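Hey, weird one. I pasted the 5-formyltetrahydrofolate cyclo-ligase sequence into the form twice and got a warning about non-standard characters only the second time. First submission, copied straight from the form history:
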Amino acid sequence: MNKEMSRQKAIQQLKKIASHPKKKAEKESIVLSLFFASKEWKEAETIALVRPLDFEFDTNKIAKKAFAQGKSVVVPKSLPNRRLAFYEVHAASQYVVTKFGVEEPVSELLIEKTAIDLIVVPGLLFSSEGYRIGFGGGFYDRYLADYEGQTCSMVFAEQINNNWEVDVFDIPVGHIYTDFVKEVEVEK
């Protein structure tokens, strides 16, 4: 199956999960319990994450816990040439909705890539090796190409699918936390 077809099916699947808020919250709770018990979470001081669309995994729960534990949270802004830059946010930060429908922070406090300990990478589909299909812009693959910190993704079991071809520019995440029994640890 090609990536675009896989992408559309994944969006439909995520919207189906989101149409059952109680079940979605239960699935997120399982994933978050694994994540919050992880070495990556415990050791990270600065965590990067995207503000979720309605049907995606609710990363706002991660931000809330990070703020409560005194961790720094950074959220991306999209730049020209399909690039990302991450900016520090706080619980009271304001956001604007982009043409992609994503919330970006109203912040000018740019955080260098080397200062980010852990990036929670979004995606629609994930292979068991940690490769992902996102929305198709390549923003994260470009950013991760020379990133040396930890990466992980919060993934519903329904998002794990190996039925697509990995491209040479695809960058896998280091760990997948899923509601499918336990997290899938990816070998690098």
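That's the output from the first submission. The warning seems to come from a hidden character in my clipboard, not from the data itself. The chain has one domain: 3-185.
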